[in-house]
Amino acid sequence: MKLEILHADTLAKLINVVSDIAIILDKDGVVEDVSVRKTELAALGCQSWIGKPWADAANPDSRAKIEDILHPGKPQNELRWRHINHTSAQGADVAIQYAVLDLEDRGKFLAIGRDLEPLAVLQRRLVETQQSMERDYLRLRHVETRYRMLFDTTAEAVMLVDGVTYRVLEANTGAQAFARDASRKLIGRDLQDCFEAPYREEIQSLLRMALATGRIEMCRARFAGAASDCTASASVFRQEGGPQFLVRLLPLAPALSPSASRTQTLFSEALEHSPDGFVLTDKAGRIKSANAEFLSMLGATAPSQVVGQPLENWLVRGGVDWGVLLTNLRSQSIVREFATELRSMAGGAMAVEISALALAGDETHYAFYVKDVVRRRQLETPGTTGMAGSVAELSRLVGRMPMKDIVGETIDMIEKMCIQSALDLTNNNRASAAEMLGLSRQSLYVKLRRFGMVSEVDVSTLN
Q1: Where in the chain are the domains?
Q2: pLDDT digits (tens, 9 = 90+) for 318-354
Q3: 381-462, what's its fold?
Q4: Sign of the CA dihedral 234, 240, 241, 242?
Q5: In 3D, which of 462, 455, 383, 376 has the Cα closest to residue 416?
Q6: pTM for the complete prediction?
């Protein structure tokens, strides 16, 4: 294409349109003039390049490219674009693509540059998108691996069924074992053919109902070759290929006889309304259930306020009493009449006796029977029939009251017992009893009044 010689202003406008940056260089590569069209390139400080070699404005790894552009080893018939990196004042690299035109008649070079930042942004987005896709793919692989492990290792019989053809897409080992026929593979078979003939219509109705309602539907059926009925449940979910069913097979629980069922109901009701508190905990001591009396002791209004919490939180001495209970349960499997105190939700303390039992099974549980002894302790009086019974009564006070109070009650009990014995030996002759005890008559009368061992008539006489 041939053009007439362009006017300088026209050429300047043309260069300004087709380039983001234009540089006039002398024959030695020194910058004589710079024109920048994009404001984003102002951070390069291009005007400071004037009077300096163009190579000084580029990164060290791009200087060899500039030298090759200005002084190629062999003549080139067409312009070539070269990638040059410049360092901005902020320290970041700015990539610009240059094409250099040799103005032979004037002994100068014209370098036309295009900003590669938009392309670099697109490249970065492409790399980030690719990395995100790889992370998602890896995450999906992990999810699929976990699903496959759960699907294959669960003891429950599970099958995936196509929602259109009703053919089994996947079946775990539990389902294959449920069939009692290891030679016949379940995958690829029609689901209805997997069940005995009398139940096939029931299975078809089950799938249709699950597809229509979107809920889990259940029915009773018998798998082909099985000796007894099972409970079949179906739930529907959507995938790209359309609806699919998750079919689970559960063995029927043995039915209780009417009398056994009634007995079980009465037993549960008696335990719930027992006059003593009852608590069931797991091996770690966390409450699984509690009856109404135990909730009343704590001042709780609903089981949710205590279920899931450690039992030791409701013991006044906390970990100390729980450690004693746990040690005895582990060694003897049973604890009887352990004296302690419960802490109510209001912060008050209540004296109780706890009997406990370790329940052995698939998982260890502990049953605790809690008896309120506050009222009984108020009615208790020291025995008068002998020291052995008194000592037994004192031993039951350990854990319910401080040792100082127990010692005080012991002194009063011994004094009262001695006075009663002296009165019995002297046929209720108080003067002789006082002499026998080494007390003055007045001291004896004071103690009689304190222990409530005199009648109202005697009190008036003493006064």
Answers
A1: 8-115, 154-251, 262-376, 381-462
A2: 888 898 888 888 888 898 888 888 988 888 888 899 9
A3: Arc Repressor Mutant, subunit A (1.10.10)
A4: positive
A5: 383
A6: 0.37
